[in-house]
Design goal:
elongated, 5 strands, two-stranded antiparallel sheet, single chain, 3 helices, alpha+beta, 45% helix, 3-stranded antiparallel β-sheet, 16% strand
Length: 161
């Protein structure tokens, strides 16, 4: 019984770590929404967090029998890095990937980064989309804190019996 209660703490903690990653990614995207040249000379590319079930878990084994990948997408594999989601009951893997959507072209001949036709390559970031992502991550984080609170109350109440 106590193992199951502690597992709920662990799983919710992993969920909170993923949502923290999402919030950090959104913050980077908003901060770089007008960055026209990065270290590679290209405009900043939007970061996205890819979350999947951890390998060799009962959940992942069940998914393998249910879902078959027919095509591929640049976001299916990480091209930046990953963050380890810690916990003894690991159920999630999260990676940060770059969105390879082409940059937006904005006509601004006075901009120092404008090409010979007056167009500037701007990052592929939509502030409205980022705000929606931020709200979604914040609500998911709150839901995980509610699960932790409920598990804590169950553990406390079970000690009173």
């Amino acid at each position: 019984m106590s193992e199951n209660i502690f597992a709920s703490f662990d799983i919710s903690s992993q969920g909170m770590q993923v949502q923290r990653m999402r919030l950090s990614s959104v913050a980077n995207n908003i901060a770089n929404a007008n960055t026209t040249k990065g270290p590679d000379g290209e405009p900043y590319k939007r970061e996205v967090v890819i979350v999947r079930a951890a390998v060799n878990t009962p959940f992942e084994k069940e998914l393998k029998t249910q879902i078959k990948l027919i095509g591929t997408d640049p976001l299916h594999s990480s091209n930046i890095g990953s963050e380890t989601i810690t916990g003894s009951n690991k159920v999630l893997n999260a990676n940060i990937a770059k969105d390879n959507t082409p940059p937006r072209l904005v006509y601004d001949p006075a901009h120092p980064d404008a090409d010979e036709n007056g167009y500037v390559k701007m990052p592929n970031i939509n502030i409205v989309t980022e705000m929606v992502e931020m709200i979604s991550a914040q609500r998911a984080f709150e839901a995980n804190t509610n699960v932790v609170e409920a598990a804590k109350n169950i553990a406390r109440d079970s000690l009173e019996i």
